[in-house]
Amino acid sequence: MTRSFTMSDEFDPAGGRWEPIALDGLARLFRQVDAPWWVAGGVALDLFVGRPTREHGDLDVEILRRDLSDFAGAIRGWSLFQAKDGRLRRHDAGEPLPDGVNGLWCRPTDDAPWVLELLLADADGDAWRYRRDHRISRLIAEVGLATDERIPFIAPEIQLLYKSKNPRATDQTDIETVLPLMNESQRAWLASALGTTRPGHTWLEQLG
Fold first, then answer.
1. Is there a smaller number of Cβ atoms within 10 Å at the N or the C end of the chain?
2. What's the pLDDT at 95?
3. Can you tell me whether residue 66 is helix, strand or coil?
4. Are 58 and 18 in contact (CB under 8 A)?
C-alpha cells in the first residue's frame, strides 16, 4: 500500500510503500518502554469492533509527545521522518521536533517500507489533551482500551474525535460501523467534545 507524501531534501528509495508491522511485533518492539502507547487510526476501531472492517494501508501508534525519546530509543538506528503539511523530512535522533510536527514515519532502514507512524499527543500531568483543542482532556489512564492479547488501542470516542476534523468517506463508514457498539458514556463524551470543538458537526445528529 502507498500513501502520498513528498520527500524533502532526501532521496527516498522506498517511496510511499507501506508494510505495517504486525501488532504482536509492535508489542514486542515497545515492551521495554515504560510509557503508554496505543494503536490508533482505523486499526484501533477494528480492535474495538473485534474484527477487520476494511483494509488499512498503514499503522498509526499514538504516544505522548513528552515520551518520544523513550520510543526513539526502542527503535534506535531506524530511519525516521517528520511528517508535516504533506511533506517528509528526515529526523535525526535527539533532534528537537519543530512546532507543528505531530507525526514521525518509521522504517527499519532507508530502503525498507514504512512500518508505523508515531503520532504525538499532548499531555499535562496525568491528563491527555486533545491536540487541536486543549479544552478537551481525559485522564491518560482512560485514553485507551486493550485487546485480550493486551494490545492497547485508543478508545473509539477519542479516535472518532480525531477523524471528525475533515471526515472522508472512510471516516463516515467508520462511525456508522462503530457507533452502534459504543456505550452511552462513550457516545456522550464524543457528543460533548464535538459540541465544544465543532458545534455544527453533522455527526452530532447521529449521536442523538
1. C
2. 83
3. helix
4. yes
Extract the C-alpha cell encoding 124. Answer: 499535562
Give CA separation, 122 vs 87, 129, 187, in Å: 22, 5, 23
- Which pTM value belongs to this model? 0.91
64: domain CATH number? Answer: 3.30.460
Residue 11 has pLDDT above 60, yes or no: no
Helix-helix angle 156-163:184-197, to 10 degrees? 30
In a domain, 182, yes or no: no
Three-class DSSP category at 40: strand
Boundaries of domain holding 108:
6-155
CA 64 to CA 49: how far, in whole Å?
A: 25
Residue 46: all three cell numbers together: 477494528
Q: What mean pLDDT comes out for the span 127-131?
A: 98
The verdict on residue 149 lying in a domain is yes
Q: Quick check: is 100 in a domain?
A: yes
User: Which residues, in sequence order, are CB contacts of 199 under 8 Å at separation 6+?
Assistant: none
Residue 185 has pLDDT above 80, yes or no: yes
**Domain count within the chain:** 1
pLDDT at 13: 45
Q: Does a structural domain hold residue 179? A: no
